[in-house]
Amino acid sequence: MRLLNATTWPLQFEVFYGNPPPYAILSHTWGSENEEVTFQNVRSRDRAGKRKLGYQKIKACCDRAVRDGLRYVWIDTCCIDKTNSVELQEAIHSMFNWYKRSTICYAYLFDYAVSGRALDVEAFKASKWFTRGWTLQELIAPVKVLFYSRDWVSVGSKTELGDLISSITRVSTEVLAGQDLEHSSVAQRMSWASMRTTTRAEDIAYCLLGIFNVAMPMMYGEGGVEAFLRLQKAIMEQSDDHTLFAW
Asked: Model-level pTM greater than 0.85?
């Protein structure tokens, strides 16, 4: 697992095999491709990376982790070499467990601003973060999820906001509290993703691999329908839950 050392500037990677040290992990929605800091930007320490909008997000995440007593951070935009198809496939298949094993997950809501002491419930509910495919597993898998506004002001935790988050996502408070996903039917888990979207069509299937604990090859270019059919087939091969057919 490749982690950012949050205590070093410029940013540096460290790679760990087997069990990594304690780390924080970021859950966020991506900006445009040219706004996010890539693996290549960090590795080459180029100035272009520091000028990107996403750089401040990474720096703030690292600073938050250090204040929380953590030395390492994992961020999907830059900790995966997306030009390496083998590494990308391994990362997608490992991502649910990486979020699950994290010490803290920071859910960064770039479109939510704190305007007073009380939570602005309607603005919180309207955050794009609740509509994206990949953030579903990033909400469910970690034990500890802390929500932050666009200015990195604490909004609350998954535990504290459980009832509200459940009403937004249709994920039960029991699942949010860590209940084994096997207690939720296939149809229930599919329903959680039904209102979510992904930038790449195929990702609407790939982002659910961890939710259903299945594996299948990534084939970008196959289209969303074909990817989803392969996901259903993979689920059928290891489950006798017939609610899949009711979906």
From this structure: yes
